[in-house]
Structures are given as C-alpha cells and as structure tokens.
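ARCHIVE CARD
Drawer: 12
Card no.: 0347
Subject: one protein chain, sequence and derived structure
Cross-reference: see card 0346
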Amino acid sequence: MICPICKKGETSVVDSRPTEDGTSIRRRRLCVCGQRFTTFERVQFRELVVVKKNGRKSSFDREKLSKSIYIALKKRPIDTDTVEKFITNISRALEELGQSEVSSSIIGKMVMDGLKDLDPVAYVRFASVYRNFREEKDFVQFVDKIDVFKKR
C-alpha cells in the first residue's frame, strides 16, 4: 500500500478489524516515514458501469462517490465512521440492484435521499452541484420546496 503522505510503498499493517456492519475490513497502517493512515478492504461483487446523462459510460468509482459526499459534508458534525457506513450502504444498494449498468441519476438520487436524513446542509450542498443550479433563484426555489429545515 502506498503512503498518501510520502508516496512510498513501504507500509505495514498495525491493526486490522472488521467494520461495524461487517462488510469491510479496516486496517491501520504505519509507513516508514512514521505516518499512520487507514485503509478499507471491501468485497466487490460485480463491475458496475455508470451511464452518464450524456450517454457516456464509465466504471463505477467508489472513491469518486466518496469524494463528492465528503465535499458535501465538509466542516459538518458527522463522524468518519458514519460517512463510511453511508457510502458503503449506497455501494451495496447499487450492487443489490443486480444490474451491470446504473444511471448516474439513480446514484445521485440515492445520495440525495441519504444526505437529506443525514445532514440537511450537506443535502443542499450536494443538490446545488447535482442539480446544477445556475442562478440564485434556482437555489432559493429548491430550498423553499424542501422541508428538512422546517422540522428542525
């Protein structure tokens, strides 16, 4: 495993344990540079292909999904384990669809539905990119339609 800090491949596993939901293994690693970092090992059932809105196809990239969710949740009070569980649940749900090709809109809807319950601010952040708001009025109309802020 390559160290994300120094980019050397000389790391060792210090601790290994299953995640809370049992779907992956969390490994704490130590690099020769002295830095510690965490990796996750997961089962991949089938190769998923994402069909974009313009018809292009690309392999499903869990890391891309993860980055977009972490960006939406930036500086929000949600712990890493909760976020990882959320990402794993979406990945599992996609695999359980039993399809080799999945529309990007299905993935976006799953993320939006989950973020709506997890954190309303992250939900709005993700929606602003996913729905491609062009003007302030688009944003205001979206926020007016949702009720996540009204029940708090």
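Annotation on reverse: The chain has five helices and six strands. The two ends are 44 Å apart (CA to CA).
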